[in-house]
Amino acid sequence: MLILVLAIALTGFFLVSQTTNQELKLALRLATLLAAAFISLHLANRFFARFADPIMLPLSTFLCSLGLVVIWRLKPNLAIAQLSWILIGTAAALMVLSFIRRYQDLKNYKYTFAIAGIALLFAPIFIGVEHGGARLWIDIGPISFQPAEIAKILFVLFLAAYLEEKHELLSISTKRVYGIWIPEPKHLGPLIIMWLISLMILVLERDLGTSLLFFGLFLAMLYIATGRAIYVSLGAFLFAAGATICYFIFSHVQTRIDIWLDPWTDPSGKGYQIIQSIFAISSGRLAGTGLGLGHPTLIPAHQTDFIFSAVAEELGLLGGVAVILSYLLLITRGLKIALAAKDTFGRLVAAGLSCVFAIQSFLILGGTAKLIPLTGVTLPYMSYGGSSILMNFILLVLLLLISEQRSAPNE
Amino acid sequence: MSKRIGRLAAIFTAAFISLVINLTYLQFIAASSLTAKPENIRPILYEKRIERGKIISADGVVLATSNKVSDGYERFYPEGETVSHITGFYSQKYGRSGLELIYDEYLSGQTRVSSIPDYIRRLLGKEAPGNDLTLTINMDIQRAAMKALGNRKGAAVVLNPKTGAVLALASQPTYNPNDIDDNWKTISTNLDGAMLNRALQGRFTPGSSFKIVTASAAIEENLVSTDTVFSAPARSSVYGGKVSNYGGKDYGKATVEDAFSQSINTVFAQIGLKLGGAKLVDYAKAFGLNISIPFDLPTSEGWIPAASDMDKLEVAWTAVGQGRTLVTPLNMALICSTIANDGKLMRPYLVEKISERNGNTIFKYRPSLWRQPISKDTAVIIKSFMEKTVDMGTGTRARIGSIRVAGKTGTAEVSKKEPHAWFVGFAPVEDPQVAVAVIIENGGSGGRVAAPIAREILATALGKNR
User: Fold this and answer.
1) Who among B8, B24, B46 is closest to A220 (CB)?
2) What is the mean pLDDT of residues A258-280?
3) Which residues of A touch B34 (CB under 8 A)?
4) Is the dihedral of CA A79, A82, A86, A91 positive or negative?
């Protein structure tokens, strides 16, 4: 399966080098390094986690390679950087694989994770750099990274540990008022805190996507842990209320929504990006224009948030659906790992990581295709971006580790 | 907890399926309307990537070609304004015109994927260039015609009367198709109509050149013969109006032949009345008026009023070539070549063949008869009239040494301005190779102004000018 995926990637490199008149040699070098990285990760996986899920690694390899091919086609000089990040990502994944023998140990660091996560989340507010109207990046020397990418994994780990301890408490100690389960006010604390954190991201970092991602993740995990729909509805209501207020108070949120509702009022200004994106997608038709033969570079941010539009243009509906289904498959495999996990912590971590994955990819896939308002998050594995690639590899390895313990024969 | 994870999986699946549905909507249902949006510049960009076919003259001169530039191809017209009314222009900003517009499908080569190797070629970005057009235009004649018109407003159409092949299509003023993007405003708002192809779309009063039609009709109908004599006063009264000769000349008595070669209006008024409005209109239509001429470029229809709309005075003037009748230079060239070709009007054409870059011919024109308004006998008689016109009549300035030239002048009176100068003719009489129609707008007398231009063109076409 991995070999098949790598063959697809090689074909992609070949086509791009033909259509954009770039050196085939460089393409081969990129492809070789990519293949080496994934094959070593695959071997390590076989070695350290022999019983881990067999589908997830080839799937993410597919998305990663496709992403690299498309980035090379869009911005050739970024391909090497992206490949380095993929190599760093696989190295980090190897390290995680070999060091963490029992993921349950991670539970002990839950408050460290929480504090580190919050610190990372809010760091950009104080020392961050603004890109495209959102303060999400921190510059360290030449590298600029998005701390939220790291924070989301830490958050999942913390929440899973926290909810494992408290889920019974949260789900049992409720009163029944008029046939509806009402939780004790004191247990609402975490919910309120989370709500505030999300709104703060929205307001201070001006990032609707990350805000939605964190809150959605929190609600999903809370629901899985407690099974109380009341939390979810209350949380959703609170967030909706908060977001509505933001809509009226903050112009950037309002602009986002208005553009989504009708981008044609300002096609060369505010609506430009989304209009160019749907033009790109629509020109793909069934089989696409062919790699390197479309014009996805007309879309601003085509190599990051809008990489899917480029895929849909050049590989058409077939390529687009393949990518969407690959994500769905990754997510369902993740949830399957959660189902099969031996302990509640593992179950919650796996479900949480799958949720991160699902929410994030849905937000950006739907956003670029104007199904939902556009929120600037990266497309896991495919978008150009160091922190995104790195953390998604770690996310993948954590899932693999959990799946390994599930299926490993009892010692 | 398992049930809840399952539910979550169902929600995510539903969400992702909605993504697929939305994608299908965008790429199939909404795709065409999105492509058509003016904000979408992709269609233009795609075209720029394809090497458009060349347009080549019959004698192998490249008239339009595509040069490789950094981001695709750029259209270039080596002959510039000399052929712009034929090639038209091709612009990303302002669209296209002329052959660039009419033959766009062939020039751009925008065909569907036909085979697996074709599909692979496309994937590799090596699409076949568009198809090349080879025209009937002869650049020597075209250049001579444009030069002979000079800076006067006017047009010339040169045909091979035997095939209908258009050898030259000149119209002045003109524009340089290479300058469209830079000088659009100046070119498109030119008061003299630089973008108007007068040869095909300019409609003018035919003046005496129309007497070819009147004479053909009268002879075909056996109403007159070559030596039927008419009175030819300077002016005559017709049903409450007057018909007068050009320059107010009194000829006493004249035969039909003399009336033709001297262009005597008072005689043709009588012939017209003898013929009657209905017959006159029928013959005009048979010669190609009031009908859209099948051609490779857009043409205007010549026009003659319905017989029922004309009183006798107007019939008389129409027979002379004045009145409300309007013709294009192409109309007159076709009328003239019908006489040259013994009464057979060949369908005019401009595109000789269409071929793929590898030489494979995908279309080759075969000359075809469009209509036959008069018999060969009549045509032979009119031919002799026309030869006499050049020999000793109003068209002497079209004489070319020993070559037998036939022709007819026209001086079309228009209100308040100088008359339009017309000359139509062909040569050599014994075996016509070239037919020509020339008009100079408000140029004056046809014999003085248009005949010498026609002479230049005919001489060049027959190789007597090199």
Assistant:
1) B8
2) 79
3) 278-279, 282-283
4) positive
CB A317 within 8 A of CB B28: yes
Q: What is the least distance, in Å, from the CA of A112 to any CA of chain B?
A: 27
pTM for the whole thing? 0.64
Residue of A nearest to B119 (CA): A290
**What CATH number belongs to B44-136?**
3.90.1310.10
pLDDT of residue B375 exceeding 90: yes
Give the count of alpha carbons within 13 A of B376, CB side only. Answer: 1
Tokens representing residue B129 in the block: 């260039």
Instruction: Say which residue, B379 or A200, is predicted with more confidence.
Output: B379
Q: At A240, list the tokens.
A: 């909706």
Q: Where in chain B is the domain with CATH 3.90.1310.10?
A: 44-136
Q: Note whether B8 contacts A366, CB cutoff 8 Å.
A: no
Q: Does the beta-carbon distance from B42 to A279 stay under 8 Å? A: yes
The span from the CA of B375 to the CA of B219, in Å, is: 10
Nearest to A66 by CA among A277, A272, A285, A288: A288
CB B138 within 8 A of CB B102: no
Tell me the two tokens of residue A258: 């208005």
Considering only CB atoms, B5 lies closest to which of A267, A339, A365, namely A339
Q: What is the mean pLDDT of the segment spanning A67-72?
A: 85
pLDDT at A263 over 70: yes
Q: The domain B142-349+369-461 is classified under which CATH number: 2.60.200.30, 3.20.20.70, 3.40.710.10, 3.90.870.10? A: 3.40.710.10
Dump pLDDT digits (tens) for A143-157.
667 777 888 888 888
C-alpha of A147 from chain center: 13
pLDDT in tens, B414-466: 888 999 999 999 999 999 999 999 999 999 999 999 999 999 999 999 987 64
Nearest C-alpha in B relative to A350: B5
Best A19, A231, A262, A283 member to test B by mutation, with max B CBs in 10 Å, is A283
Asked casually if ipTM beats, i.e. exceeds, 0.95, the reply is no
Where does B206-309 show beta strands of DSSP type E? 229-232, 235-238, 241-244, 252-255
